[in-house]
């Protein structure tokens, strides 16, 4: 055999981008495995490739010992010295074995081992090449689609953009050029090892780094970036140089820099806001373009904020399908509860009315006179729940009660009344649900109930409002659910629909999913 085999090995190594020694080692291991399978021997076989002659040589190795226990792997010192006079104990003596008798089956087994070793070496090279490039933007060509996943040709290997990492606003065909960020490299994957993304916020960060020199050199920092891929992105930026406006640097002259990123993202809207260490200020900035009246921390441990806006800013602050407040919550890491000024006023009024009503209920308990009621309220027992759940000793310590028996009787009375109110509340809610169900069913059938049906719905809602809020409810059919007179000429159907639409649209809550509006030229 000539060295033609070695030339073939070198060619394969160049094509696969792996070391020649890796293929040679794999081939030697394969020949050993094939020889053991063919000769059915337990000898310790080794193989060597002679690069000059192109020959594969197989040897059986035996260890020199004083007393032979296993003839397959051991040889006595006396026998060894007949072959190699210089042999000593523990030396290794090699005996050549023929490879001419290897069958086609053995050769096929050898081929499989070589293929496996080459494949493993190739995957190791791909992993080593791309693992340090995670976070980089890379260009490729769409090759094909597999169950919604996009397979991208990178030249020497293939990458994959899983369906979950694709932007819903984009559509590619085989042969299209695509730019994506390297998300991860999977060493154990059976398919493409390189995972790309077009939907990850990291892509936006890297695009801005390419477009904005101040970000590249570290003068401007992108603190956080959140995306609703294909629709809107919000990024918060700060500057290490007080003379450089971070938002302006990202927007660029006449919006040139941000527009380049928008074009790459197929028209995705981008809001760039000023970062702030103050969460209240950051939330105001993040909710742009809405104008915020005030922000209050409701629960610092649970990271909950309340945002109050004007009525005309409410829908803008919440955004389409809650998108603006949801992204703002993700950007800031705080849960955000948005209310209009009118809703906040109603909430405060309800709280005051509820407190007043609760105090009146305390004073109306059996066996409680005006003086005892005032004493209970001053001691902090302002609601039926406070009394029903109070410790008997604490109640008995009040001069107005003075004994455990009186305290127990008061607790029992509060618990009974509380249970009665809960039952009444459940009945009112059931009536409300039934009234709404009938109205929705009638609307679904194409007709609303007559004037009496609308009045019944108003009456049911009014009863609930009166019970929960302690308000007098006008049963006038010309009033909406909010107590605002209907527009002149508005039908009962339109009044109900308007009231229900307003109740659905007011207020917005968002939880984190993780200054200045977007400047357009």
Structure description:
The chain is an alpha+beta fold and 521 residues long. Among the domains are: 4-127, NusA, N-terminal domain (N Utilization Substance Protein A, Chain:P, domain 4, 2-Layer Sandwich), CATH 3.30.1480.10; 134-199, Beta Barrel (OB fold (Dihydrolipoamide Acetyltransferase, E2P)); 364-477, no CATH class. It has 18 helices and 16 strands. It has helices at 4-16, 20-39, 77-83, 104-130, 201-211, 213-216, 246-251, 256-264, 279-286, 314-318, 323-332, 341-363, 370-378, 384-388, 392-396, 404-444, 451-469, 492-505; strands at residues 44-50, 55-65, 74-76, 92-97, 137-146, 149-153, 158-161, 177-185, 194-197, 220-228, 232-239, 269-274, 292-299, 304-309, 335-340, 508-510.
What class, by secondary structure content?
Answer: alpha+beta
Largest sheet: 5 strands, mixed, barrel
Unreliable stretches, pLDDT < 50, 5 or more residues?
A: 448-454, 467-507, 514-521
Quaternary organization: single chain
CATH homologous superfamily caption of the domain at 4-127: NusA, N-terminal domain
The total beta strand count reads 16
CATH architecture of the domain at 4-127: 2-Layer Sandwich
Helix content: 40-55%
- Count of DSSP-assigned helices: 18
N- and C-termini, Cα separation: 73 Å
Cα radius of gyration in angstroms: 40 Å
Categorize the overall geometry. Answer: elongated
CATH class of the domain at 4-127: Alpha Beta
| CATH-defined topology of the domain at 4-127 | N Utilization Substance Protein A, Chain:P, domain 4
């Amino acid at each position: 055999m000539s060295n033609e085999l070695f030339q073939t090995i070198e060619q394969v190594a160049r094509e696969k981008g792996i070391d020649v020694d890796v293929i040679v080692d794999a081939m030697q291991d394969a020949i050993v495995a094939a020889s053991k399978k063919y000769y059915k021997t337990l000898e310790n076989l080794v193989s060597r490739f002679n690069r000059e002659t192109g020959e594969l040589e197989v040897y059986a190795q035996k260890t020199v010992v004083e007393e032979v226990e296993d003839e397959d792997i051991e040889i006595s010192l006396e026998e060894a010295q007949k072959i190699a006079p210089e042999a000593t104990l523990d030396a290794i003596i090699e005996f050549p074995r023929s490879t001419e008798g290897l069958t086609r089956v053995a050769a096929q087994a050898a081929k499989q081992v070589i293929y496996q070793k080459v494949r493993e070496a190739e995957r190791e090279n791909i992993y080593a090449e791309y693992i340090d490039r995670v976070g980089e933007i890379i260009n490729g060509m769409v090759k094909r689609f597999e169950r919604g996943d996009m397979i991208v040709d990178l030249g020497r290997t293939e990458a994959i953009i899983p369906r979950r990492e694709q932007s819903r606003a984009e559509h590619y065909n085989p042969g299209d050029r695509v730019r994506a960020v390297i998300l991860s490299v999977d060493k154990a994957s059976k398919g493409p090892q390189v995972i790309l993304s077009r939907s990850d916020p990291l892509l936006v960060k890297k695009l801005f780094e390419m477009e904005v020199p101040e970000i590249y050199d570290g003068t401007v920092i992108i603190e956080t970036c959140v995306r609703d891929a294909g629709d809107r992105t919000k990024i918060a930026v700060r500057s290490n140089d007080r003379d450089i406006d971070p938002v302006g640097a990202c927007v660029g002259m006449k919006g040139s820099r941000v527009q380049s990123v928008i074009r790459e993202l197929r028209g995705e809207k981008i809001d760039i806001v000023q970062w702030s260490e103050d969460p209240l200020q950051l939330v105001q900035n993040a909710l742009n373009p809405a104008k915020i009246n005030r922000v209050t921390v409701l629960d610092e441990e649970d990271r909950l904020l309340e945002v109050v806006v004007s009525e005309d800013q409410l829908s803008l602050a919440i955004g389409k399908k809650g998108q603006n407040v949801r992204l703002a919550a993700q950007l800031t890491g705080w849960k955000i509860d948005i209310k209009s000024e009118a809703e906040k006023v109603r909430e405060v009024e309800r709280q005051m009315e509820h407190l007043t009503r609760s105090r009146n209920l305390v004073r109306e308990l059996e066996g409680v006179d005006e003086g005892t009621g005032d004493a209970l309220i001053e001691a902090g027992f302002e609601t039926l729940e406070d009394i029903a759940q109070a410790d008997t000793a604490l109640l008995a310590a009040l001069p107005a009660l003075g004994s455990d028996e009186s305290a127990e009787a008061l607790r029992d009375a509060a618990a009974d009344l509380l249970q009665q109110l809960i039952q009444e509340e459940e009945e009112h809610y059931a009536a409300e649900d039934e009234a709404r169900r009938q109205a929705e069913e009638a609307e679904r059938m194409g007709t609303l109930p007559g004037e009496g049906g609308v009045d019944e719905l108003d009456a049911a809602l009014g009863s609930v409002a009166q019970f929960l809020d302690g308000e007098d409810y006008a049963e006038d059919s010309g009033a909406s659910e909010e107590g605002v007179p209907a527009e002149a000429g508005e039908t009962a159907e339109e009044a109900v629909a308007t009231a229900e639409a307003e109740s659905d649209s007011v207020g917005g809550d968002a939880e984190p999913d993780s200054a200045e509006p977007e400047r357009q030229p």
